[in-house]
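User: My instructor asked us to take a sequence, write out its structure as tokens, and then describe one feature of it. I'm not sure where to start. Here is the sequence I was given:
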Amino acid sequence: MDILRDAGAEGRLGKMKTDERNIWREQAAALGWQHRTVMEGVVHARLSDGERFDRAYEFAARHLAQEFHTAAVVEHEKLGMYAARGLIGTGIAGGPGDIARVVELLEERGIRLRGEHVALVVGLFDERVRVTNTAQIRIEQSLAESAKAVARDFSGALSVQAIERAIADSGIRFTKEQRAAIYALGRGGGLTMLTGVAGAGKTTLLEPLVAAWRADARFNEGGRKVIGAAMAWRQAEALQDAGIGRAYALAPLLRMIETGELRPSRNTVLVLDEVSQIAPRPMLKLLELQARNGMTIKMLGDREQAQAIEAGDAIEILLRALPPDALPELLTTMRQVSRRGRDIAGLFREGEAAKALAMKRQDGHAMLVGGDRDQVVGRIADLYLARRDILRACGAKDGITVSAPTNDDVAEISRAIRERLKHRGEIGDDEIIYRAIDQDGRTYDLPIATGDRVRLFRRTWGVVDGRACHVGDNGDIIEVLGRTADGLRLRTKNGRVADLEWRRLCDSETNRLLLGFGHALTINAAQGITSDEHINALPRGTSGVTAFTTYSAESRSRGTTWTIISEAAVYETERYRQALGDITPITPDDLWARVAEDMSRKPYKALGIDLLAAARCDREQAIDTFIACRHALETAQLDNPHFGPEALKRLRALAINKTLSRHVAALDRALGENGELIRDIVREQEADAHLRALRAEGAAAKRQIDATTDVPAPSTRPGL
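Assistant: Let's start with the prediction itself. The structure tokens for your sequence are:
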């Protein structure tokens, strides 16, 4: 600070010798300080071109493999991007040619993906050059083939009488569409997928089917075993409401089967929920297990909701592979209590966000909130508390929930709600700040006090009434009742009071609490919940949302879903779209149009088999073109043996005609100039000839004159 102050003073007083850096150097030298860096003395070995390219290839291959963990198809441009990044560390000597060489190595050598060496497949798809890998293609092709085989096995199908008896015994009045879905699932083959919109009552229609399966003694006298599964524990345990006693998250279920802890058989029925979140790779593992043990698989889901994080789209593959009778649909929602609410949710599902938002704006349930990020988050927290108080006063059972696109959004909204609850005295003053971590490895400080709500990030065990038992899963929200000698006392989502030891709540590697803020959930985590009211919170605007996430967030409640969007974030996004120098004012209608466009986008995940099919199609078209050309040439040669030379002459003539038109003007000018030159030469020649003629005439005339004037010499006379 002293150096900066002195330099500024000398500059103001006009005493600047050269510039500030020289002053700083002189002052540093006077202090005896010398600049040193970690780069001093470092000697880099000179690499050959082959070594540079190999190291850059290794870097690019490693990072490209990470892309293929979440995408089945990537843009070909990314190969060049990672090649350029890899060359940063090795040096670029040949400019763009070096990048092209590394890209060639990627295409020639392939990459390692999940411990397997795979080749890259390059093709043109949707008018852009894209890349996939052979492992992804194999997974997708195997999934389609396995699904077709499983769907043809009807040995485990229920009889009509068994289904009718189970429906009658359930005492539930099903709609006509629900009854049709029940029969389709029960009478289907070894693999059946029910596409059901959010809130269609998929769990309810499972109740008679579960009862019928348990009563089916064809393979075992004790009836069939029914197991439920989903990507997340919370979604899987929701299947218990349908009478499924054993439910697991998908990853632990696969581990249990591989280790032999769980042994499915022909007598087993596996019910998969929220299959839109299951990627092709784990889905293929299930079908391979089914091929070995013969279990029956029934799936529930909706492709229009949140999709899988891993590469590929399992539902799209199944929709192509399975016969129509294995793909029943239930497209009438039962969750929303009003017809208008069902219509709005349906519009979001169809990608008609503009119409849905217009209806919500008329009702006052969708709004753009001004202010900075903290102010928008504050408005969301205020709305949450206001609606929570109203619902509690009305005796609502499920209350209000909040969802947001990212974990950061969820944390900020939860903090804002917590601050207000603390100010109101609903959270105790015994707050202690703990070090915490989430399931993705993000670390943060988590204040915990009596009355707080926290989220679990894994399946957790504790003590209830003196007995050790399971108290919550990843995604469950629990309430803090106080502290014990070695942990926390909590109220679970089921209302039970449980004591949890710190070791049950801590991450084994970092010793941080595996807990998060519990007043909001991400949209993916909220998929499957039902509440009286819901807030679709978008404090970052809508640039990161799609029709899939929007539909999931907008279909969680029976009653009102509030849509709160940051106006400033949408404004900045819309301003960024304008050309530089464009001063056209942005109106509120422009902002809502932008929101509707974002909420209507349906970026379905690309499949590797589509790129392979496009590449094969291009190759076959090229072959067909060559064959057609060859056939035309041979036919023409038979009709006219001199077809080749004549065709060559015609081609040359056409080529000359194409180029001649560009030179006509130049030829005209050249001809004109040459004509003038010729005329000048002719005039000169004519003048020269005329001059020679005149000279000849003059010479002739002179000779004639000389001849006529010639007098003979006088004779000599004597005497004169």
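For the description part of your assignment, you could build on this observation: Residues 46-132+607-648 form one domain. Try explaining in your own words what that tells you about the chain.
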